[in-house]
Each structure stands twice: as C-alpha cells, then as structure tokens.
Write a structure and sequence with these properties.
2 domains; hpI Integrase, Chain A; DNA polymerase, domain 1; mainly alpha; globular; 295 residues; 57% helix; three-stranded antiparallel beta sheet
C-alpha cells in the first residue's frame, strides 16, 4: 500500500509483492513468524537458498536484496523496528558478472527478412506491426514498458522527436532518425487504411487497442523459436543492448548515449562502453592523435 501510495509503477509493486512473498514463505518454513525474529543470519540463509536451490543469478539476487532493504527501511520509518535491529544493515549486494551477448547484424537482418516474408504469406497487419516494432527498437533502444505506451500524439514528425514515459514515470524526449521517420509514416498510412481511422497507440492489437507488455514478450519468444537463434536471447532489452553497442561502435560519446538511453547515472552507460570498448578500435585508429605525428 505504501508503494502504491508513492505512485510506483505496477511493475515495481508487483516485484515487491513477489520478492517479499517468497521471503515470507521461506521464513515460515524456518518457523520464523514475527519480525523481531528475522536476523541477519536468516537473511543470509535465504540468499543462499535462492542462489543454490532456486538457481537465481546475481542480478535476480541483488533485486531481492534491494526489495528486502526497502522493506526493512519502511519498518524503521514506521517505527516498527529500530535501526540497530535492522537485519539488512550489513547485507551487501553481490558482485555481478556482467556479460551481455549482443545480436549480430546478420541476426537482426534475419529477423527483418522473416517478418517481411510473414507480411506476404501470413497476417499482414501483425507482420508489419512487428517489423515496425523491431525497426523502432533498433533506432531508439527504448524499453518494453516505454514502447507499449507510445501514442501517435507523442510522435513529432516535424521536430524529429518522440516523447516516452521512462522509469519512475518520467517523461523524456528522444530523437527520431530520418530513416525511422520514413518507416513510421508508412506504417501510419497502413494503420489508417487497415482500421479506417488512426487509433491512439502506435503499436496496437488487431482491435486497435493498446498492446500489453506480455504481448510484446510473446512476439519475441515466437520469433526466437522460429529463427532458432543460439547463444542470444531475443527481447526488447536485447535490442536496447544492440542499439547501445552499435552506437558505441559508430563513435557516439558517452554523455549523448546516456541522454538517449535515459540512464539515471553515467556509470550504467559507462558499463556499456566498458563491455564493447574493443569495438572502438576502428574509431581509435581513425582519430588517434599519434597517427598525425611524423615520428
């Protein structure tokens, strides 16, 4: 209730419920049913359980640690416990092994060609919508939650910009490339013809209604199965990684990339640069000042 009152997104509220319910079930199994009996050692035992028994990765475990920290901080604020008895006080997040497998240019082309074929032989609207979704993700790197909320009124073709509601429901404007503008204009004309009138949302269902985040995930799961990609996933976030990696390879500066991706801090953007720094070899060779010195 507190988090809903603070206007957190439904996704965040759902995450808290899921994580805290799991911890609660673990506590009951350990015969711990009142807050004062929750100790640091119990929390550590729980974290060992989710790591070894539930096979949670480092990112998922850290997510659960953040939920527990927030919960016990809430209890302190409500004066249900004091800071001294906070079992999360000495619990730190674990080090994550950062390894992101990025889609190759060839795999991206395969996705687009596959959708082109579907537009000819299967449901034309669904195939064209999905193709435009992929193109939109390639060109903007938006998140899944942002994608489903974009309305035609958010797209400004004159200023080449698109309004998106990002994390924490923050409104931001992202740039639109000339190529993306052309694709969106063609897609909009098709939607007007298909539905008889333009709906509110850019990416909609066959009933011209807002598409859900789960439906977007299903699109990519189906594509992954049909294309049988190995070694990489296929999701909105994978195209966000693809956008970031290609932008870095093409020489974008960190500050610009941070603004486009709307990272809260530069460290997250720098992580991308560190991951794909080797891709900067060509740019470094082109602009390195040593190359201009006659030595």
């Amino acid at each position: 209730m507190d988090r809903e009152f603070k206007n957190l997104s439904p996704y965040s509220v759902k995450m808290y419920k899921t994580n805290l319910n799991e911890f609660h079930e673990f506590c009951v199994e350990e015969s711990v049913v009142i807050i004062p009996d929750v100790t640091t050692s119990l929390v550590k035992k729980y974290l060992q359980y989710v790591k070894n028994e539930r096979k949670n990765n480092e990112g998922t475990i850290n997510n659960k640690i953040r939920s527990l920290k927030a919960f016990f901080t809430f209890l302190i604020e409500e004066e249900m416990i004091n800071e001294k008895s906070n079992p999360m006080k000495r619990i730190k997040q674990i080090k994550e092994e950062i390894k992101i497998e990025v889609l190759s240019d060839n795999q991206v082309k395969m996705v687009l060609k596959h959708l082109d074929r579907q537009a000819i032989y299967n449901n034309r609207f669904i195939a064209l919508r999905n193709r435009t979704i992929v193109i939109f993700l390639i060109s903007t790197g938006v998140r899944r939650g942002e994608l489903v909320n974009i309305k035609w009124s958010d797209v400004n073709f004159e200023s080449y910009s698109i309004k998106v509601f990002g994390k924490k429901r923050q409104l931001a404007s992202i740039p639109m490339s000339t190529k993306l503008k052309r694709e969106l204009l063609e897609y909009r004309i098709y939607c007007e013809q298909f539905f008889g009138k333009l709906g509110d949302y850019v990416f909609c269902s066959q009933q011209n209604k807002k598409i859900s985040k789960e439906a977007i995930s299903s699109i990519f799961k189906k594509l992954h199965k049909e294309l049988n990609f190995e070694g990489v996933r296929l999701s909105c976030h994978d195209f966000r990684h693809y956008f970031a990696s290609k932008a870095i390879q093409n020489g974008i500066d960190v500050m610009t990339l941070q603004r486009i991706l709307r990272h809260e801090n530069i460290q997250m953007t720098q992580r991308y640069v560190n991951l794909w720094g080797t891709a900067l070899q060509e740019q470094n060779e082109k602009y390195n000042p040593l190359n201009n010195l006659d030595i």
